[in-house]
TrEMBL record:
Protein species of origin: Eiseniibacteriota bacterium
Family: Belongs to the TolB family.
InterPro entries: 6-blade_b-propeller_TolB-like, Metal-dep_hydrolase_composite, Metal_Hydrolase, WD40
Protein's recorded name: Amidohydrolase
MF (Gene Ontology): hydrolase activity, acting on carbon-nitrogen (but not peptide) bonds
Keyword Zinc: no
Amino acid sequence: MKISSFALSFVAFLLFSATLVTPASAEEKEKWDISEADLGPTKTLRWTVDEGTWMDLDVSPDGKWIVFDLLGDIYKLPITGGKAQAIRTGPAYEVQPRFSPDGSEIAFTSDAGGGDNIWIMDNEGAEARQLTKESFRLLNNPVWSPDGKTIVARKHFTSGRSLGAGEMWMYDVTAGGSGVQLTKKPNDQKDVNEPEFSADGKYLFYTIDSTPGSRFEYNKDPNTTIYTLRRIDLTTGKEITVANQAGSTLRPEASPDGKYLAFVRRVRTKSVLMVQDLETGLQRPVYDGLSQDMQETWSIFGTYPGFGWTPDSKSVVIWAKGKLQRINIDSGEATPIPFEADLRAEVVDALRFKQKFGQEDFDVHVARWATPSPNGDQVVFQALGYLWIRDIGGGTPRRLTNDTHFEYYPTWSPDGSQIIYSTWNDQTGGRINSISLRGGTQRTLVDEPGHYAYPSLSKDGQWLLYQRVGGDRYRGHAFTNDTGVFLKPMSGGETRKVTTEGSRPQFDADDDRILLFSWSTKKKTLFSVDFLGGNRREIATSERAQEMSLSPNGEWLAFRELWEVYAAPRPRTGKPIALGPKMKNLPVKKISNIAGEYLNWSADGTTLNYSLGSDLFRADIPGMFDGSSDPDSIALSWKAPTDIPNTNVVLRGAKILTMDSRGIIEDGAVHVVGNRIVAVGKSADIRPSEARDIDVRGKVLMPGLVDTHAHTGSSNNGLQAQQTWSFVANLAFGVTTTHDPSNNTTMIFATSEMAKAGNILAPRVFSTGTVLYGAEGDFKAPTESYEDALRHLSRLKAYG
């Protein structure tokens, strides 16, 4: 057993990104063995316990032994209690042991092969073999058929959310194989779990989340019905509901004599062991001293640990509140089964990276909408809330304006003389402006307040195209009364609303149609309409593309899918082209080495530009296809000054909670210079000569709080509010540092840098960026090799 804070984080990563499978060799995929993985330096811990948490167990058919799991290892114990014998240990996480009907073997769930599968070993822990070999639809909760020939287990299915639904699958114990499906998931999010054979093997019981709707919801009411008990006839395939009751029916276990079914039910605030007479259907409570079940949660491994009957069908052995209990089903008397287990853990040293706080400057890592000028000499981009420009060959970026409103979506005029962009101000809304590069003259092109995105000029300079988007809970919903895509004549005249369908508008090669990207869950479409919004033509479709862009010459299609950038030739067929990384109908080329976003083209349509973090990449597409060139990169990062206040103050007279060995200091003082606390102590001992005193008597001072799991959110459409209420609320409650484990990568790291620069008021902002997601969706992170994992981490690292 190896455990560490790093390992716990890694487990969370696996829950979100499905499973990490081994890299493929030249001939076949190497077999992954977690026991041989080098996870870094370790130290050995040894200790002895007489209780445990969430222990699945089973009773041997002869009634002499109990097998149970504890901290991911498997132990065997005489049913009378005593010293537990470790029969399966190591770094793999192994749980849910089940004796075979003859007691000679034990089935269990193990991730030794890289993901949760069903394994079998003999009853002493030897001769372990992997029965199922799933790499994505992982399995748990094995249960033997009474004849010992098959095992049924729960197979896990995800769709748009990481923790999804389940199905019951049957596997031949000798041959294994891909399994036989017994049940079909009712939808993509409701749990199906906890299989159990009837004693005669004719039926399979299982539990199912039967709450209304097709979406999993947190905080369900356990006093109503969450889980119902279903039964499938393994001869006819007919299914019936056995129990549908308040408090749910959880973790069914059939008695060996076939007369009873034990299960767990919530009764008000207690989880209660119940027994149902299968002939009469009568239920009765047996024992109310169980630990809390997990029916309100997404309980992939079951709502309560597995338990077992004694062979005489008179008692149940179950884990409850740390102990093993033998419950007589007639009297309800609980007899503790004492045990003692010697644990050994190889603890992997946590992987930690030292963070720097309060430095005088910082590296800017987030450069958005980086776009070279038409002649290729300069590049404009957005960072720290504002627009910046620099020579393409190098140099320090300079701000394009001196305005205080935030600036977004920069684009060049076709002749390169102007930059068009949108703005945002929390009080007055947004506008669309232009600035001349030959004197700095600024003009407001759209003066009606709104939330604006994707402004651009036609090649002849006669038309301004832009999108008016909706608000959100950070920018608010003012100025959102009319959203859609608009055309404005630059010579004057009435602005025309073109369409409400699609986003990311741009002119086509002939300036007589508008290209739009339509984003839906089932299909992404690049299409065009005329200037009146009619005569719709589909150009390309994709299942997962997050961006699609047609080159100005109409010869190439670029798209971004699952973080990577691709390109394909675009033949004119009059029909949409189905784009994808594995498309066979046309050649397709992966352009990016790690990832990319913010696709845009050179004026002649041969060079594709894209960004990753603070790097701009330029790819000669014809050269990429004939093998004569690779993308070149331009680093746009620079060191920006940190916003450090010019302060020298002493907060004097407060009660100070030091949170260290000094404890509480009555009548204390805290000396702050700039962004540093330089002294903490008794008020009489801190008397700097030039500091300003602030009387805080009657107050309590303590170090700022660090929220390590803070979902502070991000604005939509790339438009950051000037002040985010969630950050101010955190500061008001004393949180001075936040860590967001799941947020939009670009937005949250841009926000972090804006806070460092003093452009927004916020705590220190740390984040993982976009979560490494394994469920279906446009932003999932497929991880089937070490190289895949490294690429995803490199992608996130590019943003700081």
